[in-house]
Specification:
Order of helices and strands: HHEEHEHEHHHE
Strand content: 5-15%
Number of strands: 5
Radius of gyration: 23 Å
Number of domains: 2
CATH class of the largest domain: Alpha Beta
Structural class: alpha/beta
Shape: elongated
Largest sheet: 3 strands, mixed
Mean pLDDT: 75
Distance between the termini: 45 Å
CATH topology of the largest domain: Outer membrane lipoprotein wza fold like
Low-confidence stretches: 1-47
Helix content: 25-40%
C-alpha cells in the first residue's frame, strides 16, 4: 500500500516539468507488487520525457506532434513539413520554447493582414449563436459593422445551425468565412 501511495504522490507532484525517476524495490512475485513495479517503469518513461503540441493552420502536415521539453517552434515546424506558400511565417515567433498542450497556429497571409496575432489566437472557439459584439470582433476580418450584422441576423432568423450559415449574413462570403471557420462554433 505504501508503494501505491508513493507512486501516486510522485505522479501528482507536478514538479514543473522536471524529469523524475521512480525507484520501487524489487519484490517477490505477487501480482499487485509486479503491477506497482510496471506502473513505476511507465511513469519513468512518460513523466517529463515528452510533450504534445498541436500544429495547425498553414502547415504542410498539421497534427499532434510529440517532442522533448525545451523544443523550439522552428523545430516542430520542420517536423510538420514546413509552412505552405500562403503562410504568414513572420506572425509566429519561431524561437519560442513549446509547452505541453500548446496549440501552434500558423495563419495565412490574409489572416495576418486582417489583424491576426499570437495574442489574439485563442484556443476557445467563439459561439456565433451567443457571442457578444466584442467577442465577434475578436475574429479576423470581423469589425463592429459585421459583428452587429451577425447579431441582427440571428435575432431575425434564429440560431445558426452550422458554421457555414454565417455566410448568409450580408458582407460575409467565402473569403471572410475561410478566415474564421476554425475559430467559430454553433454549439
Amino acid at each position: 500500500m505504501k508503494r501505491w501511495f508513493l507512486i501516486a504522490a510522485l505522479l501528482l507532484c507536478g514538479c514543473a516539468g522536471e524529469e523524475r525517476s521512480f525507484n520501487v524495490e524489487a519484490t517477490q512475485g505477487s501480482a499487485s507488487e509486479r503491477y506497482t513495479e510496471e506502473a513505476s517503469t511507465q511513469a519513468q518513461v512518460s513523466y517529463g520525457s515528452q510533450i504534445y503540441v498541436y500544429v495547425c493552420g498553414e502547415v504542410v502536415s498539421p497534427g499532434v506532434y510529440t517532442v522533448a521539453p525545451g523544443t523550439r517552434v522552428y523545430e516542430v515546424l520542420e517536423m510538420a513539413g514546413g509552412v505552405t506558400e500562403n503562410a504568414a511565417v513572420g506572425a509566429v515567433n519561431l524561437v519560442n520554447i513549446l509547452e505541453d498542450g500548446q496549440k501552434l497556429y500558423f495563419p495565412s497571409n490574409e489572416e495576418y493582414e486582417a489583424g491576426w496575432s499570437e495574442e489574439t489566437e485563442g484556443t476557445a472557439l467563439i459561439n456565433i449563436n451567443t457571442a457578444s459584439k466584442e467577442e465577434l470582433m475578436k475574429l479576423a476580418g470581423i469589425g463592429e459593422a459585421k459583428a452587429l450584422a451577425i447579431i441582427a441576423y440571428r435575432q431575425k432568423n434564429g440560431a445558426f445551425t452550422c458554421t457555414e450559415d454565417i455566410m448568409k449574413v450580408s458582407g460575409i462570403k467565402e473569403a471572410a468565412y475561410s478566415l474564421i471557420k476554425d475559430r467559430i462554433t454553433v454549439n
